[in-house]
């Protein structure tokens, strides 16, 4: 997930821990290298800068440089600071889905992994939380996308709203809402249409749908490989629609991982899950401790 970053940081810290005694300059030099590694991982500049500043403040005091294992102390400070920058509030991956039927709105750009993630999350809610889930595709411009969700639904044993040709997204949403109530569903997930880029039409459509259901969760699904672009996308969607969290997909790829580190700090929104492959089980809770551990190898 963070191979390159992890490797880079590993070599900086290896040197530091092997060195024994450390001067403040040694620590500063190492942190400069950490900063470069973060920027190369496509962490946004202000986030990288604040991160290094926070670490430097804690790591250059006498308590660290005069300690018996200064290198390890620096690594521990970096580790704790990583957790700090990754942390959202509350339980990792928690969703507000009490009071059935709870609507979850899935938003994002086309190709980001929205439909796949909708199904993965539905499967998780069904299997882990014992929820009865209904999925509905609102992608009226791409019949193939509607079909795709229906096929995934069959595969994972989750109901999808029957497709009615010619309906607009708001009408489908109203039908999903009624069906969710009448059918005794705990959760209904709305897979909104994506576009190749953010445009007014897309946003207006999602706003209209949002206003029909008042979603309990609005999750932005975004390709983690796109680094800072993923963060900009989140800012845009949050401004216009209001999002409650983010799912970063394709984190199984040779991602530089920067989006994971910048997202919370820049947008104020937590990453709730990460996508780690195309399979229906390849969805993981975003756990700051675990992620920090992975980054530091
Ligand atoms: P949508 O247009 O946003 O609905 O995107 P899709 O859900 O159709 O996903 C686009 C492609 O990305 C599909 O081939 C998915 O299998 C793939 N995909 C989605 N999530 C992941 C992921 O976490 N990792 C990998 N490797 N591929 C993914």
UniProtKB/TrEMBL annotation:
Q: Which residues form a coiled coil?
A: none
Annotated positions binding GTP: 108-115, 191-195, 249-252
Please provide the record's keywords in A-Z order.
Cytoplasm, GTP-binding, Hydrolase, Nucleotide-binding, Ribonucleoprotein, RNA-binding, Signal recognition particle
Main localization, broad class: membrane
Query: Which EC number(s) does UniProt give?
Result: 3.6.5.4
Which catalytic reaction applies to this protein? Answer: GTP + H2O = GDP + phosphate + H(+)
Q: How does it sit in the membrane?
A: Peripheral membrane protein
- Show where the SRP54-type proteins GTP-binding domain sits: 270-283
Q: Where in the cell is it found?
A: Cell inner membrane; Cytoplasm
Leading EC class: hydrolase
Role, per record: Involved in targeting and insertion of nascent membrane proteins into the cytoplasmic membrane. Binds to the hydrophobic signal sequence of the ribosome-nascent chain (RNC) as it emerges from the ribosomes. The SRP-RNC complex is then targeted to the cytoplasmic membrane where it interacts with the SRP receptor FtsY. Interaction with FtsY leads to the transfer of the RNC complex to the Sec translocase for insertion into the membrane, the hydrolysis of GTP by both Ffh and FtsY, and the dissociation of the SRP-FtsY complex into the individual components.
Subunit field text:
Part of the signal recognition particle protein translocation system, which is composed of SRP and FtsY. SRP is a ribonucleoprotein composed of Ffh and a 4.5S RNA molecule.
UniProt comment concerning the protein's domains? Composed of three domains: the N-terminal N domain, which is responsible for interactions with the ribosome, the central G domain, which binds GTP, and the C-terminal M domain, which binds the RNA and the signal sequence of the RNC.
Sequence similarity: Belongs to the GTP-binding SRP family. SRP54 subfamily.
Q: What is this protein called?
A: Signal recognition particle protein
What are the leading ranks of the lineage?
A: Bacteria, Pseudomonadati, Pseudomonadota, Alphaproteobacteria, Rhodobacterales
Gene name linked to the record: ffh
Shown stretch of the complete protein: 1 to 297 of 498
């Amino acid at each position: 997930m963070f191979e390159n970053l992890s490797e880079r940081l590993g070599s900086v810290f290896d040197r530091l821990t092997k060195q024994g005694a450390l001067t403040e300059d040694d620590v500063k030099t190492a942190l400069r290298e950490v900063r470069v590694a973060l920027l190369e991982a496509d962490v946004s500049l202000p986030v990288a800068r604040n991160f290094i500043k926070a670490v430097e403040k804690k790591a250059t005091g006498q308590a660290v440089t005069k300690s018996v294992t200064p290198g390890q102390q620096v690594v521990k400070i970096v580790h704790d600071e990583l957790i700090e920058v990754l942390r959202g509030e509350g339980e990792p991956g928690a969703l507000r889905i009490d009071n059935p039927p709870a609507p979850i709105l899935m938003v994002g750009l086309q190709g980001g992994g929205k439909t796949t993630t909708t199904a993965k999350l539905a499967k998780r809610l069904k299997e882990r939380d014992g929820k009865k889930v209904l999925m509905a595709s609102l992608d009226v411009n791409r019949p193939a996308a509607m079909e795709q969700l229906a096929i995934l639904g069959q595969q994972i044993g989750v109901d999808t709203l029957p497709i009615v040709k010619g309906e607009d997204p708001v009408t489908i949403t109203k039908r999903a809402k009624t069906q969710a109530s009448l059918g005794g569903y705990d959760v209904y997930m709305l897979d909104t249409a994506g576009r190749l880029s953010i445009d007014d039409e897309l946003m207006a459509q999602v706003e209209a749908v949002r206003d029909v259901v008042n979603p309990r969760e609005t999750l932005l699904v975004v390709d983690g490989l796109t680094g800072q672009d993923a963060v900009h996308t989140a800012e845009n969607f949050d401004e216009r629609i209001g999002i409650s969290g983010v799912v970063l997909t394709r984190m199984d790829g040779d991602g530089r991982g920067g989006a994971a580190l910048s997202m919370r700090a820049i947008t104020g929104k937590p990453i709730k899950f990460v996508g780690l492959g195309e399979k229906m089980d390849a969805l993981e809770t975003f756990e700051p401790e675990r992620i920090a551990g992975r980054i530091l190898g």
